[in-house]
Amino acid sequence: MLNAGKREIGGMLMGEYLGEQAFRIVDFSVDLKRGTTSSFFRDSDEHDLALQKFYEETGSDYKRFNYLGEWHTHPSFSVDPSINDINAMQGIVNSGENVDFAFLFISRLRWFWQFECSAYLFIRGYQPIQVEIIVEKK
C-alpha cells in the first residue's frame, strides 16, 4: 500500500471455509498497475491465473478452498464501499457464474501508519451487509 501512494490497488481474495459461516483469507492477488486516485478495476486475466494457481496448490478442493471475493484500498476515502464498489460486487454475485456470494475487503493506511479496514458480504438477491473481521494472532 505504501508504494501505491494515493492510487487505489487491489485484487482477488482466496480463502478457506472453516465452517459455521466462517472463512479465512489464505491468499490474495495484487494489481499495482490499474488503479487511479478514485477507482480500481483489476485485470481479469492476471488474477484468473492467480486463482488457477491457488486451486492447484489446494488440490482443487473447491468446497474447502475457493474464491472469496475482492479487495482494494481507499487511500483517500473511508473504508466504506462506494456506489461503484457496491455495483461491481453485485454484478459479480448476480452474474450467474457459480458465485453465489462474495466478500469485499477495503483497507487504507491513516495517520501514523494506522491500518483501517472493513469487509462486506454480498449475496445474490440480498443487500450487502458488513461482516466482522477477526485478525488471527500467530
UniProtKB/TrEMBL annotation:
InterPro entries: JAB_dom_prok. Pfam families: Prok-JAB. Residues 5-106 form the JAB domain. One of its GO terms (biological process) is proteolysis. Keywords: Hydrolase, Metal-binding, Metalloprotease, Protease, Zinc. One of its GO terms (molecular function) is metallopeptidase activity. This is Mov34/MPN/PAD-1 family protein.
